[in-house]
Amino acid sequence: MKKRTFLKLSSALMATPILAPLTSWAADDKLKNWAGNYQYSTDKLYKAKSIPQVQELVKKYPKLKVLGTRHCFNGIADSKDNLISLGEMDDVISLDTKVHTVTVDATMKYGQLAPYLDKKGFALHNLASLPHISIAGACATATHGSGVKNGNLSTAVAAMEIVTAKGEVRTLSRAKDGETFRAAVVHLGALGVVTKVTLDIQPTFMMRQDVYENLPLAQLQQHFEAIVSAGYSVSLFTDWQKKRINEVWIKSRIEKGKTFDAKPEFYGAKRATKNLHPIAELSAVNCTEQMGVPGPWYERLPHFRMGFTPSSGKELQSEYFVPRKNAVEAILAVEKLNAHISPHLMITELRTIDADNFWMSPCYKQPSLAIHFTWKQDWASVKKVLPMIEKELAPFKARPHWGKLFTLAPAQLQSRYEKLPEFKQLMKEYDPQGKFRNAFLDTNLFGS
Fold it and tell me: Would I find Ribosomal protein among this entry's keywords (predicted)?
């Protein structure tokens, strides 16, 4: 969002009655997502400062959706009727140092929570590349970081509080609710309004980040597992040109007797001599510190610093998950399309994520490789390339990221989620009248 728009929206939030729509700013600045590529279908945006106010809004309107930090590139959070914001409900509620959990308001951002935890001597197991995203939104869409032994951000969820379509408050926990909990954590906004999340935490730790340039693609073919296992979290960036990986980002925990040995060469790649941005043409000033400089976990796990515009700002994003056992085959399949991809691409990031047991997670029951595309903001061109990529990845039954752009036919998408029929049944239980359904869910979960 542009600074001018943000200031207008902030002023409107402060000046508007609690349950009145925030429409005064919309005359010249329509409500859009973070990247500006998606315009929401209504200007009826309501705010809630408390759970009773959430309940009141849910009971009042027959159709509504929750709008968070707006980092999705598609209509998963859109509504043509009513939108609700919980943006002011972003506090830490409790820290349990004995069982190692923290409970927070669901719209708290990771970039807000992380420094608080670190000061208390704790950490999260992982972070996404952007610390700007909300905890509830990230978990609802199975957003992730990287690491062969690291599950996505949802795997840290120990409990969640949700307001259902009837306005009832329910609490679900890993310890007590079994399959219902595993169904609800990655919920796609289809079950209700999540108001609180309890996350697993661990003792704080220090990290370093080392970057290597120009890894030959042939080396990745031969040594994929060794390369992606070289650090606690490893990201590979490529423009699909010159049969190489442009940059390898290795994030390592600094532990007594064990740390990353930053040699001048890494499988044919050369160690960088300065901080780099994943997109070579852009300045690294917005990026987290590299060059092996030690720092807190939350200042190394993300690629981008909280106080700056992440990534490039004006962009489109797509991402596909394939089984890690097929990672090299999938990478080579996409590489064949380089002449079609490269003209429209800013950068691709390759990351590994461990398996989980959440019904609607792209990593359900499979350790995965995520192939992420940051595109130039030219949807007409990108829309032509995505079907080509999806066709090449079809043998691996690739699952797209729920919050990013894809063109996969609904029937194909549905066939890749074995628990989808049961998830639909849970939707009927929590939301019998379809209060939280929208065009995105109707098309992708129910369409043919």
Answer: no
Q: Which residues contact 99 (CB under 8 A, 6 or more apart)?
A: none
- Look at residues 428, 445, 439, 440 and name the one whose alpha carbon lies nearest to residue 191: 428
Q: What would the DSSP string read from start to end of 133-149?
A: SBHHHHHHTT-----TT
Q: What is the DSSP letter of 272?
A: P
- Residue 219: strand, helix, or coil: helix
Q: What does the block give as tokens for 377?
A: 């903001």
**What is the Cα 382 distance to its own chain's centre?**
20
Q: How confident is the model at residue 307 (pLDDT cuts 50, 70, 90)?
A: confident
The domain segmentation of the chain, as residue ranges, is 45-85, 92-203, 206-414
pLDDT in tens, 90-129: 999 999 999 999 999 999 999 999 999 999 999 999 999 8
Q: Which fold has domain 92-203?
A: 3.30.465
- Give the separation between CA 230 and CA 219, rounded to whole angstroms: 14
Confidence bin at 18 (pLDDT 50/70/90) = very low
Residue 415 tokens read as 């066939």
**Looking at the domain covering 206-414, what would its CATH class be?**
alpha beta
- Report the alpha-carbon distance of residue 130 to residue 72 in Å, rounded: 12
**pTM for the predicted model, two decimal places:** 0.92
Q: Which of 413, 417, 405 is nearest to 447 (CA)?
A: 413
Q: What are the percentages of helix, strand and coil residues in the chain, rounded to 5?
A: 30, 25, 45
